[in-house]
Amino acid sequence: MPAAPREVTVALTPRARFDVIDVRAEAARQHGDALDEFQNCLYCSFHTTAGYLDQSLASRLGRQGNGVEAYVGAFRTVFPEGADYRHDNMEERSELTDAQRVVEPRNGDSHLGFMAAGLKPVVTYQNIPGGPVSFVDLDGMQADQRPRRRVTTVVGYAAEEVVARVRISIPVSNHPLDSVNLKDPRLGFYEQLAEMIGRFGVGKGRLRLDLASKERHVGLTVNEYETLLMQHDLTEVMRNPVRFVAERGRHALHDPRLVPTKTLGYAKYDLVRALNEALDALGLSESLVERILAKMMGVPAERFFRMKRSVSLLVSDRQRDGRGAIVEGTYQSPILVQWRSSETRMREIEATLTRFV
Hints:
With 357 residues, the protein is an alpha+beta fold. It has helices spanning 23-31, 55-62, 67-78, 98-103, 108-116, 189-200, 227-239, 243-252, 259-282, 286-298, 300-304; strands spanning 6-12, 19-22, 40-45, 50-51, 122-126, 134-137, 150-157, 160-171, 178-181, 205-211, 218-223, 310-316, 325-327, 333-338, 346-356. The longest helix is centred in the C-terminal third of the chain and has 24 residues, at 259-282.
């Protein structure tokens, strides 16, 4: 009989604001061979600016040496630190106290980079001996340059079995660019998921959220649902993907009279350079770079953001033995993002509950 699923917590210390850490090596250092016998592992980050790439993409990038760094670095170029993100304007953050405004990180670039690069808080990997698993941190340092404390959970398991599946309708607005916090209690979405977990008694497993096959011009991500970030910064990027690169170019110019004619040029130059670096890391051709760039400029939301049609949530009984629940970070929320309105003003999500065995 295969061993029962095993869950471990791994503490991580980033070395810089942008860092890539091999979690598999760290797990071995902190927990020995506790996970070696399992065919699969689920990796769960509890942070909104640090997470994982899907194994297929990570493996492809890994064959290029520093491919993960180059790929994610391209999106960091598109979202430069210190640009004019509404998320970072603390005077507008009415939900924060005066004391919180002093210490709240100005990391709008990290949130947008996380979503655009297709990073996820929860991924499942085949457990390949010696194969690295990259934890990508986009905001690893505090304002005083002390490293943040990062935590990730790893669950080793032999296989997973489908326990239940349900389709849930989510109301959306008629705005073409909009985002919906699926954790909003007014939707009742999380309550339905919790009821399903309790009804089938899953202790360790995952919830996979998939957009219905008919859904178009919409994606899923997991991040902080902060109003200025989701309703302003994200919307700005979906309208114009070079908006914040242009902002950096504007700040770099000393003569404001030159801004109208040169800012877009600076932005496009930076974007082309960033894409070239990323696609070089992937081993793709120059002609493909040009085609992707053209498509990105023409249809920003669909081509620029690597929005997923599915995301996963960890189910664990870590707090109450045998009683599974969704486990996530304080500020994490699954978010539905649409860039074209739905005629019915509804979006359908299929939630699949699996048990690890």
